[in-house]
Automatic annotation (TrEMBL):
Annotated InterPro entries: Ald_Oxase/Xan_DH_a/b (IPR000674), Ald_Oxase/Xan_DH_a/b_sf (IPR036856), Ald_Oxase/xanthine_DH-like (IPR016208), AldOxase/xan_DH_MoCoBD1 (IPR008274), AldOxase/xan_DH_MoCoBD2 (IPR046867), AldOxase/xan_DH_Mopterin-bd_sf (IPR037165)
Gene3D superfamilies xref list: Aldehyde oxidase/xanthine dehydrogenase, a/b hammerhead, Aldehyde oxidase/xanthine dehydrogenase, molybdopterin binding domain
Name under which the protein is recorded: Carbon monoxide dehydrogenase large subunit CoxL/CutL-like protein
Enzyme class: oxidoreductase
SMART domains for the chain: Ald_Xan_dh_C
Sorted UniProt keywords: Molybdenum, Oxidoreductase, Plasmid
GO molecular function (one): iron ion binding
Keyword Oxidoreductase: yes
Domain Aldehyde oxidase/xanthine dehydrogenase a/b hammerhead: 23-146
PANTHER family recorded: ALDEHYDE OXIDASE 1-RELATED (PTHR11908:SF132), XANTHINE DEHYDROGENASE (PTHR11908)
Coiled coil start-end: none
Enzyme Commission number, as recorded: 1.2.99.2
Amino acid sequence: MNMAGRSGHAQAPLDLEGETLVSGRGQFTDDIITQDALVGVFVRSSIAHGIIRGIHTEAAKAAPGVVGVFTGEDLAAAGCNPITFMVPLFEIDGQTEVPYVRTPRPAIARDRIRHIGECVALIVAETAGAAQDAADLVDLDIEDLEPFMVPKVATEAPDTPIWDTAPANQSYTWLAGNQEAVDSALSHAAHTVSVSLRNQRLAGSPLEPRAAVASYDRETERYTLYAGSQGTTFLRKGLADALGVPPESVRVVSKHVGGGFGLKVYVYPEYVAVAVASRVLGRTIRWTSTRSEALMADQGARDSALKITGAFDDNGRVTGISCDIVSNIGAYAIGIGTRVQSSVIAENIAGPYLTPEIAIRSIGVHTNSVPTSPYRGAGRPETTYMLERLMDKAARTIGIDPIEVRRRNLIPRDRIPYTGPMNQVYDSGDFSAVLEEAVRRSDWEDFERRREAARKNGVVRGIGCSLFAETAGANFMEPLDFRVTEDDFVELRITGVSTGQRHLSTITHIVSERLGISHEHIRFIAGDSDQVPMGSPAVGSRVGQMTGSAAFQAADSAIARGRMMVGSITDGRYNDIDYADGYYTIGSTGERIAFLDVPKRVAALKRQGKQIEETLDAVEVFRSPGFSFPNGCHICEVEIDPQTGKLAIVQYTAVDDCGNVINHAVVEGQLVGGIAQGLGQALMEEVVYDETGQLLTGSFMDYAMPRAEDMPRSLTIIDLPDPTPSNPLGAKGVGESGTTGSLAAIVSAVEDALRPLGVTDVQMPLTPCRLWQAIRAAKSSM
């Protein structure tokens, strides 16, 4: 793999997390050892839709080692509320709320089963074995109802809808843009091009399964939950609501977290159930999901039907786009799941292109599947996938090169800042430079020679391009608690929790560089809701640009406050005090005072009776004027054996603009990981239910995941920054970019390879079996 590029920001060689993790000294939730802890095991529904007539737990309660058995009725009697935490769904203006069906989610089902794997009882025992043995003794009496597994069937006048408040199983209808103007553009277009696509359901499958360790302190009347999360204060709010207590009565702690991808943001039923059980029993309770449980009960991802139609003039320029999305949101609407397939798509649908008019209609449908939530990219990959497949089809329809159709539609550099049709303001980006660099680095112009060489070797070769511009940095405010301690440390407390992004290295470097002090004197605190300010979780590629900017500002503000304090110490004038390399220098005397010594000097003077009000400690809040727009161009080449359908990615070029790069190693890791997850969706991953709601992909024997051997044989990553003016670092997000850029590049390359064989339509996942079948079907129709 090769990574090259240039950056306007200093580089950071710091790796403050790696040694701990690779040496096995990380502490994940399941590693937390608590004496006298009980073990919880959940009994889960084996049917997808039904009415609970009875849950018989007598035998389980009498089993050896069992301390408690809890049903939904037991939790309700203990004061447990349904989980209702939901981010409102707004129109594109961000102000007008869009109605949707409210779906309170019980920690343990009480009267109705709405998806397979839903919790119906919690067994708490002295050992895991005893809890599992007792779980097998629970007898469930559930009346089967007709399951609805796909949106089309779910909306066809069901006799027993999943929710009585949604007779047609429809949660919301979301509209944006100017449909009349788009219809006019389509009616007057020289070319009308339409593409229908499938965005299949995925399982996020982080390396560390979900786990929880819950306890309750009767003296303080406080709950403590250890669980892997992407933000403890965010999780605390949802958990407190379900427990019926104020947030101050709940502490959430996340140690090391092995992957999140959006799945570890919100409160899960299991967390609520074990917390309530710990209060009732007066004992600590631990629960760790099995991988089969995770595939069955973790929040799902993607799962939508997409249709995009574009109007193009004779020169191949787009004049209007219409987009229709039907999203399977599962049995419950949770978190920001409704936003992912509506407003997030609207914010990104124009991509890097000049598109005069856009109209979007998004419909959310309930089915008897596990709820969906944001997953890496969260609306951005499918948006780019739609748009870039449209550009490819337009190029073929009009008869021009796929790179050329993109060139003709790009937003020119001299029109930045540019306001798009959904009022999104592109604050930076040189999209033409990114495209041309990718074309050059991938040797696009010489591809036909490589295609012919492959043909002689008995394989077909194809090339695909994906150009994108995406939003990053949502929730435009971020706090950081900055302190200087008596033991000579700068202490940084942040809200987002790292799930592998190396926040410690990145944020520490920013402050170390700004203050001019060693990183060894910086202490980093995250993952404890009692110790960090209330803020957003680590989502949406926001920590580098938002928390990093808060850290940058906090350091500058501390230097300014320190200058005031040094003036009080020395009776010097503010303008006569300089700061560099961790020291204040008083110009008139030449005296030097270390930044870390200032609080001690002030404390000594206060003990002598001097009045000094200033302090270096403060909560700094960074406010961004809006999104940044990371962008890039990914070009993929594949080879396929037409006899077997076996596919190999032989060359992959990714040119990305994520603004000024703070740490190249982090950026490379994020891009490689994102490309791997995009590759997984494009080529192999899919959650499959049968028509009765049974999960057919309940283990990694059935749910395929990418391996090292599936990665591109040649992977080149190029950094081409155009800094954003929206934050002092000039940094944009990068966490989603690899996934956003890879879907269309890979699928387009496959389609390009198979087109000479008569295959004209392919849908993800492009497994060898599906490719082989498509090739055979095309041959039989010739």
